[in-house]
Amino acid sequence: MIEFARLERRLRQAVDRFERVEARLGAATDGAEIVKLGQEHAELKPLVDAISAVNAARAEIANLEGIAKDGDAEMAELVAEELSAAKAKLLELEQSALLLLAPKDKDESASAILEVRAGTGGEEAALFAADLFRMYQKYSSARRWKFEIESVSETGIGGLKEAVASITGAGVFGRLRFESGVHRVQRVPETEAGGRIHTSAATVAVLPQPEGDVDIVVDDKDIRIDTMRASGAGGQHVNKTDSAVRITHMPSGIVVIAQEKSQHQNRANAMKVLKAKLYDAERERQAAERAAERKGQIGSGDRSERIRTYNFPQGRVTDHRINLTLYNLAELIEGALDPVLDALAAEDQARKLAALEEDA
After folding, report:
1. Phi, psi angle pair for 123, to nearest 5°
2. CA-CA distance, 117 to 165, in Å (whole number)?
3. Considering only 1-10, 152-161, 288-297, which range has the smallest mean pLDDT?
């Protein structure tokens, strides 16, 4: 647990900055400046409120200690329990304030593009990819996020070669960002007659959808757009009309396909996915530069990094980045991801706070 006192200078600086922004906001007349100051004010206010709560709790403790000191033995005994509770509450408030001080990913509140692809393991890998895709779909439903399938390439027995979905909602990327990487499964495949356990894999990518003032410019001369017939079980139009759209971004070699809707909608959706991929490529470039300066991240989101193993015979899930092992595989694969995601978020926050403490 990070000591609050170690970062009090940073906290005072945040309060001072908030007061300056608030004062300037009351005097500013330029529209662009007002918007910029308003955004900074909104970002700082939760932290300032948390610091105020810490100061109020400290004042309460000082008052209780005064009562205990000046009163008789009976009064001191009555106050002792209340004082203990107040000190425990103060520790919680201090940690809450410190978490707000930790740097945030600017895309944390963004919606996301989800990609799931079968890896090594043949048909079993494709079946596992389908399991993962459904897992995220169920989790999204439980969170009341909008889950829209953009493109699906199926195998003959219910597996997925690859699938792409757009997940829209508050904080989607912030919640799912650590899911990017290689997911490994150990189980007896449905096609295995001998009962032997096989190891297969699927890759997951979670990309933030750029929003707000982020403008990803895609020049028409840099892309090639092809229309084709949709493949797989996608509706009555499959193999009858050229409704699917494939966009190739020639400078980067990125190819995206959308085939679940009308040609017009597919073109718009494919462009949305392309922009997310280009935006993510720039994010990864910047992250690589930062990672070279500071080690010890949970993971960069590199799709080649093995992050988790799902062992079906033992009902075990292991996240290798934080050495977390849970025996709730049956629930997790049905969308109960919170125990793992909460642990990853807590580890990430601890890492950020440790970095703040180092720099204090």
Report:
1. -65, -35
2. 12
3. 288-297
In angstroms, the CA 70 to CA 84 distance is: 18
Does residue 305 contact residue 185 with C-beta atoms inside 8 Å? no
Choose the CATH number for 112-178+186-300 among 3.30.70.1660, 3.30.1060.10, 3.30.465.10, 3.40.50.1000. Answer: 3.30.70.1660
Separation CA 44–CA 18 (nearest Å):
6
Q: Is residue 308 within 8 Å of residue 132, measured between CB atoms? A: no
Q: How far apart are CA 315 and CA 127, in angstroms?
A: 18
Residue 81: count other Cβ atoms within 10 Å of its Cβ. 9
Q: Across the beta sheet with 254-258, what order do the strands follow?
A: 223-228, 244-249, 254-258
Q: Hey, which residues does 168 pair with through a beta bridge?
A: 146
Torsion of CA 148, 150, 151, 157, to 10 degrees: 10
Q: What is the pLDDT of residue 220?
A: 84
Instruction: Tell me which amino acid residue 219 is.
Output: D
Which residues have CB under 8 Å from 304's CB, separation 6+?
Answer: 181, 182
Give the pLDDT score at 238.
45
CA distance 296 to 290: 11
Q: Where are the domains of the chain?
A: 4-101, 112-178+186-300
Residue 339 identity: P
**Owner of token pair 């990864």:** 284
Q: CB-hemisphere CA count at 13 Å for 342?
A: 6
Q: So what's the pLDDT on residue 106? A: 75
Q: Two tokens at 2?
A: 């990070």
Please state whether beta strands 181-187 and 306-311 pair in parallel, antiparallel, or not at all (unpaired): parallel
| pLDDT tens digits, one per residue of 305-318 | 789 999 999 999 99
CA distance 216 to 278: 8
- Give the ranges where the chain is alpha helix by DSSP (H): 8-27, 31-70, 73-101, 122-142, 172-176, 263-293, 329-332, 338-359
φ, ψ of residue 75 in degrees (nearest 5): -65, -40
